[in-house]
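Researcher: Structure prediction, please.
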Amino acid sequence: MTTTNVSPGNSELVRRVAELSGQNVFACYQCGKCTAGCPFGFDPQGVLRRIQLGEVETAIGLDTPWDCAACLTCAANCPKGVDPTKVYQALRSIAETDHVGAHHRRHRLRTTVLANNHRTARLGSHLAPCSNWAFCAPGAGVALERVLGVHHARSLPPFARPTFQHWFRDHVPLRDGHRGKVLLFHDTFMDFNFPETGVAATELLELAGYQVELTNAVCCGRVLISKGHRPQAARHAQTNIPRLYEQSAQAAAIVGCEPSCLLTLRHEYPDLAGDDDTRQMAKVVASRCLLLDEFLERLADDGQLELNFREPPAKRQSVLFHGHCHQKAMAKPLASVRLLRLAGYDAELINAACCGMAGSFGYEKEHYEASRAALEQGVAPALRAQPEAPVVVMGVSCRQQIEHFCGRQVRHLAQALREAVAEEPADPTAQPAGRTEDPASVTQAAMTTKSRS
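Model: Predicted structure follows.
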């Protein structure tokens, strides 16, 4: 955990904020970069200043800790490494446990339902297709808005039946797994909403020569953390950590497809671990966690990417890639761009901040217009400039936002790469994928967004 550096003269609430968040709240020197860069116009600088002054209850009463979309743009912009979103989570937790401040302002039923999405999605999948019909029925949007505060124009992610785990249980591996085992962290959305992502990732890893095994884990707890249910999130983490530690001991990596979920294992679990032994295991687990693009890029860098990409046409297909906010803050979207280019696409990184969805933020009726406005800051203009270009993402939130407001079909990176791979094994005498292109040229090309609007 980050050193909190709270002096004895500070209030007990300030100390608790620092300890719960793992942040040195006094490292902030009020430069304002967090507030200036926020795509939603919130004021993290002001919240931190109130805490520094010992006015924690006043900070809890501000709009920002409750309205924050947790896109992590503020954390990425901070020159001192302070993460305001973790501070907000601590404030919400204090409001919940101590009944202080303005915790009554939030929509408690909506928060509970969204925080427990892993249960809601399981139930919705079990009842599919009836659950999908119910949510699409006339008047369903109005009912959702009145009961849960979900904007009536939004469509919930469809529930899938059969689930990804059902498919995985019955499928026949495409290769012999001669390169060893990898663990696939199958997140809630992969299991119950978009199993095609898991299918593509599994087949991609198998075609790369690996035996794929699913993790024996419960929900990562990302939404619980975002909604201030830290004790429940800690229980999820403390269940997963020893399981993943033991299961991953003989695996090449724990691979994930949803950035917010996989990066929760990597960046949040050491702080949620509890005792020292579990924290040490959490650090080992974190070191073994890689996003799908990170794992495949590492193989490419070593000249060991055993994927036989089809020969691209003379005119490569242009593809727009939008990076997930957590991917941009804690990983690197350019890994996805590089892989798309290796697969034969003319891939371009959209030069934009948050798409505006940010988890459940864009679903909430009071944030709908702010969500739309954030999309218009960069993502929407880039899409309008290239109306025919396919759109590729890694995050479910990004997918939902772009489909809703822009009407564009969106694929996950795993699907785009899988479609570019031939079934036949790669020629062992050919140059391995990953050594055919200069990474520097990929970086330069990816960071140049073509703006024709």
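Model: Residues 1-10, 426-453 have pLDDT under 50 and may be disordered.
Researcher: Thanks, that helps.
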